Structures are given as C-alpha cells and as structure tokens.
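If you are new to this repository, start here. Below is one unmodified record pulled from the training split, so you can see the exact layout before writing a loader.
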Amino acid sequence: MESWGWWLIAAGALVVGELFMGDFVLLMLAAGAAAAALAGVLGLGVVGELLVFAVVSGLALFFVRPWIKNRFYRSSHQVKIGVSTILGSEAVVMERVDVENGQVNLSGELWRARPHDASRAYEPGDRVRVIEVDGATLKVGKD
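And here is the target side for that same chain:
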C-alpha cells in the first residue's frame, strides 16, 4: 500500500477517536494526516509527508481548534444544573425557620431550612430566597 493510503487510514482512525474525546485535538491531527495523504499523492515523499503532517497539524491545533471550540461551545444562555438551579429561588416557610429548626416549600418540595443570618427567624407563610445550599439544608433569607 502506498504511504498516502496509510495516512488516510490514520486520518479516519483519528476522526473515530475524536468521536470519543470531543476536544478537537484528534480532529486537528486528522486534518494533518489528510494533508499528508494529499502530499503523498502529489509525490512529495515520506519526509515531505511528515513535514506537511507536522505543519498542518500544528497550525490546526493553534489556530483552527480554538476558533472551533469557541464556536462550538458558545451558548446564548448558561444551562443551570445541580445546586445552581435553586440558588436565588423563592420558597415559602412551612415551619418556623431558626437556627435549630425549619422547613420551606420550594417548587412543591419540602426542604429543611436554616436562616443564612443566624440572628434572623422566619415565620410560616413568609417568602424567602435560597441563598446557599449546605448538603440537604437550604440557607434562606429575605431580599
């Protein structure tokens, strides 16, 4: 098999590897391998192919990859997950919230709660905001 064929096989393997990695490094190396295959077809020889592979891969890694990552991962809104989804949310006090006890209703679920400011207490019916999450306990306060 000609050297350009091996470069094409390498490019394909790198693309498949990229599917599992997702950081665009292997994709840039695949571009270099594809360019080296073209160099092989043009008859540049093994040294020329290696040089083309190194140059194209390097340029792709330092110039193309950051641009692609910026475009690919740019989002018009940040998706909140985990604790960040409830920070700042409004809850209703169900049982008096003080430093020892307390329970709030947050989006239909009951949570153990304590005041963020230990000198404060909140009565049933008060509307509070989630300021912090400490394990399964919400630290709440008024605006």
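Two things worth knowing about this chain: The chain has two domains: 3-73, 82-141. Helices lie at 3-21, 25-41, 45-73.
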